[in-house]
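Reading is simple: each integer encodes one residue's backbone shape. An example follows:

___
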Amino acid sequence: MQTEKGIGRVITASSVGTLIEWYDFYIFGSLSTIIAQKFFPSSNPTAALLSTLATFAAGFIVRPFGALVFGRIGDLIGRKYTFLLTLVLMGLSTFLIGCVPSYATIGGWAPFLVLLLRLIQGLALGGEYGGAATYVAEHAPAHKRGYYTSWIQTTATLGLFVSLGVILSIRRWVGVDEFVNGQGWRYPFLLSIVLVIVSIFIRLKMSESPLFAKLKLEGKTSVNPLKESFGHKENFKMVLLALFGATMGQGVIWYTGQFYAQNFILTKCNVEYEQANTIILIALVFATPFFVVFGFLSDKWGRKKIMLAGMLLGVLLYRPIFKELFQIADTSNKVVASTKVVANNGPIASLNDALQPTTTISTFTDDTQLKTTVTQKDTVLPPVIKKEVTLNKGSQWRMIGLVALMVLFVTMVYGPIAAFLVELFPTRIRYTSMSLPYHIGNGVFGGLVPFVATLITTLPGTDHLSGLWYPIGAALLSFIIGLIYLSDKNKIVDDHK
């Protein structure tokens, strides 16, 4: 096993690459409202946003296929070169998304090309995570496996953090108008190529996992990892238990606490773009260290208790938390202190436009501000109404506290899960076996949360909280299965016997 200093280098080299892959993957989600305007027809904004979220979700749906393809390569050839390959694919596809012309320029080719590149992103990420987690776990001593692998677990949230930080920085640098209506939104995608080159340089210096290298030297690597992983009854049973008893619940908790929260604050609470993303950023700063805390505690208390507690807290508290988020930004019960109307402050898009936008700015007694823009494009269609709420400082910090609480649930389910999955499967098929349930649970069940939850709220008879029934139901089912069938014994499977 590695020395403490050696394992530090392993974690750093693995984490930097994985963080960059998550950064690449999440830029798309963080810019979904702008991408909806650029790559899809603008006649129906809700349909365009749903199309964007569906494209975002498509990247998650193909992740299990990436897990199968690259997991097999990782179990046959080795961990190091496999996640070098996934890194290159991710970086190139992200860079190219920044180069695709808009719908106004090339029509239907725009959403097609974006979807294609998004699918490549999903395939690459499907192969990345399992390799990184396996690589670190196979260097770590058994009694600190939860602690060391928890550093890899921070990379997903840090990737989201970096993506939001880069987006907000570029938005301020180029100006809001250039970022939203010009080419500024492309820069976070184009920046990816630089980050990936740096990461490749770091990873080229890494050596192969010692457990895999030993297995290869002894000629004990699997000849057919897919058949061995899913063709053997006992191993396949563990794959299903890992999926429905752990990763499904972990996935919906992860995406509800971070991505759906972001989407909800932007589209249901109508909080101003920069303030909404600042709320998420600060909440992530407060809560991210708990990935390592819960990874460390899982070495002492066991993985199962901590992960299931995180799921149960999400099931019980999501509706009260999201209800509170909505009420904080709801201006219907506030007292107006002043109102200002600004007319004729926008360009005429075409000769069919009968009126230019009219903006009303209402300031309330608690310093909350509501900006309402009404655009009447013609005399047939109803006006397009856009609301934007700027919260006062106290309300902003209340939202930060609520989002940080949800990210805390995320750290409970996500901090220990890499060690939990690694310990379920033997080295010879670990990359393949752990990657599939992780990416179905996290990528498919979790990645669909923003799309499915938003879709539910558009159905007749639903309200702004109805979308939460999807993650709550999935987390509850996973909690029950995990409670009954999962073991809390954190013993790694021995493949040398």
